[in-house]
Design brief:
- By secondary structure, this protein is of the alpha/beta class.
- Helices cover 35% and strands 20% of the residues.
- The radius of gyration is 22 Å and the shape is globular.
- The mean pLDDT is 96.
- It binds iron/sulfur cluster.
Length: 445
Amino acid sequence: MALVTLGCAKNLVDSEIMAGLLAKGTFTMTSDPAAADVALVNTCAFIGPSQRESIDRILEMAALKREGKLRGIVVAGCLAQRYQADLLNEIPEVDAVVGTGQVDAIVRVMNRVLRSPSSRILEVGPPGTAVDLASHRAVSTPRHVAYLRIADGCDFRCTFCIIPALRGDLRSRPLESVVAEARRLAEGGTRELLLIAQDSTSYGADLYGEARLPELLRELVRIQGIEWVRVHYTHPKTWSEALIQVFEEEVKICKYVDIPLQHVTDSMLRRMRREVRRADMERLIETLRSRIPGVAIRTHFIVGFPGETEEDFTELLGYVRGAELDHVGCFAYSREDGTPAGRMKEQIPERLKLSRRQALMTAQKKVATSVWGRWVGRTVPVLVDGPVAGRPGVSVGRVEQQGYEVDGVTYVRAADGAPAPEAGAWVRVRIVRAREYDLDGEVAA
Ligand code: SF4
């Protein structure tokens, strides 16, 4: 079988679980769909562009099937949850559709597709994954780094977001199960844990009646072998004093806060139903910066949200120019059926959305040049992710303030004649140059 994974890290963990279950079910993996019996496409449906990419990949598999190179196509993930039987009706080459809550049925579905190719299977139920299948995972990231999904689903109801409809309400994994998985990963060579959920800062609120992320982090940093614990997808509304204290006190917690702000004007935040105001977010970021020296702030904004005025955008642009954020991503608002914002009247023309996105990212590029420029001359620890193809003696890695696969990187040049540092190695690096989001450094003597 061939496995195509699209979308976010949470979807990647679902793919790893399905790959693990299928391997136990005697399926062997190939990276070439044309050489496989069945292709499993684990899709994303977050916004329009990711839906289009998912459909394009399914149609690629459909072409292989029409050429007789594939016997079956199974579609899983968020697009499967969203469109269900429509996928079977619209794309006749698709044999089975598996929902986000039915990951554990994948072996049975794949066997049925192979046994009776014309069976057309719809295996979709209420949204939300049986979150505790982690023990079956076939981890696909390099040995020294691994995602750790602590929960799935979300209790917020941001008006632009389709995720709760596809992934359900917040469901946290029991703390013991998360810690046990982290121990297994550490025994397997993981040095950096990447904590993921839709809303990590609410971890435990459903299971324990209160958020338990601080407690979980204190457990994780005690695991032998784990050097970095990085928290992704925090929500500005659910940060707590206890959480700030853990970041402040535990050196293994990366000085890195991933906190999508989405916008900064109170009128837009209200229309987005973000449950926070500009002053709350600014106060939080100020507190994080004063209590966690050297902390990097990573965030995302949406421009062109229905009703966004020129004044709203000017205020956002002004904020970005002044806030000195370390990592900024920006989406042009994507109108999604089934969301409250999708029904709003004041939709913004596509051209204007894209020009606002361009203007914001251009402003951020200037900020990034100055923020990362300050690293030049510093000597810092870098975790190496691997060699750089075609550049002998050079590896790529990250400083603590750079997230895996989502942010800029640090290129590390070995001393003359020395081999490039290997994946998973910690090296002390003197930063000699900064290029907008990336750093260049030399292994320090
Ligand atoms: S916090 Fe908002 S944007 Fe994030 S997953 Fe939940 S509803 Fe969607």
